[in-house]
Amino acid sequence: MNEWAGGWLEGLVTADHDLDAEFEARLRESSTLAFRVAFGVLRQRQDAEDVAQEAFAKAYRSFWQLRDRDRFRAWLVRVTWRLALDRWRAERRRRTREQAAESPAAGSAEDAAQARDRAAHLWRAIDALPEKLRVVIVLAAIEGHDLSEVGRLLGIPEGTVKSRLFLARKGLAESLQCLVTDPSAR
Amino acid sequence: MSRDRSISALTDEQNRLVQAAEQDLDRLLSVEPSADFAARIRMRVRERERPVWWHGRWMFAAAAAASIVVIAGTALAVGTIGRTREHHAAGTSPAGLRRDVALPGETRRLDRAGGGAHSPTSVLATAARGDSRRNRLPSTRAAVPADRAASPVIVIDPGRRDSVDRLLAMVREGIPNLPVATPQNVAEDLTVSPVVVKEIEVPLLLVSDARSTAVIEDRDK
Fold first, then answer.
1. Which residue pairs from B87-96 have beta carbons closer than 8 angstroms and sit at least 24 positions apart in sequence?
2. What is the ipTM of this complex?
3. Considering the entire predicted model, what is its pTM?
4. What residues of B are in contact with residue A137 (Cβ under 8 Å)?
């Protein structure tokens, strides 16, 4: 009886370790994705990392339901996006996101200023989009996701992604055109 | 971002703007997290209490252990009962005698004690009777010793004991004209005389009280 109970407990511990190993694998392959999704909303490294950590902590608690890779990534993206939006709304008034926006391609000071200016225009145009369109265009810009991958992450059909992406691009173009032709709108 | 999606509905100027914007967006979102980002995730996960599925697993383990104990206890009890029945079948233990089977000795004892709890018509068991109910009770068969199995056992009302004794005495001594029921004479006794249908006359009943009384008197005569 004792041997049987010992074997049973050992099996439990082994299963525990298997789950931990799987979670570690998901963490390695999806941590950057979660960070970038959060960054796409918050544009601030520290906040984005914090939100991504929170999303992973939630994922760990429900990991027994999320062992499938695609399901885990889709769940992670949606939770991260929602958490990031919550954080962004909570801190919207006291933060000036344009100043926090980073420009990794900055060369000289003049180039850096120009890149910062362009980034600020772009984020402003993206923020002007409805949320459904915004999440599509941000996810499509992360890690080269194509339409089917974006559809899987958001749990919507590929055709819906295509139409939303078209509307997002159109809205983005109109906003940017407005900003280019009317600098006072900046 | 994949570039295979059509944006033909946009003007050339809009196309140029969108393509430039998408390139910027690709670059802006190519930002990498800090080097210790994954380590901090692990730390935060460890800081949290154990996940729900972990607790659920131990609850499941406790429930399974309890079930195993119950099953093992039931199996032990069944084994004990089985062994006891084997003892009874081998006649090694008198404790297996069913108390709802009245043996001749017990019947007499009950009669003397005036056991009124027994119904006068209840014949509880007959060891020699091969009815289906007995066949379903192997323990009853095992409880009746073989030397007594040939004697029928009847529980009777103590108040009718004298009558039964007299009847038994008459049977033992032989009653001259005691009818013995056989299928033939039972059939004879049951023969019914033929039914004759006859026309009967019904006297006229009159409405008048005096006349009806007279008619009734006439009928009585």
1. B88/B139, B88/B142, B88/B143, B89/B138, B89/B142, B91/B142, B91/B145, B96/B139, B96/B142, B96/B143
2. 0.76
3. 0.50
4. 25
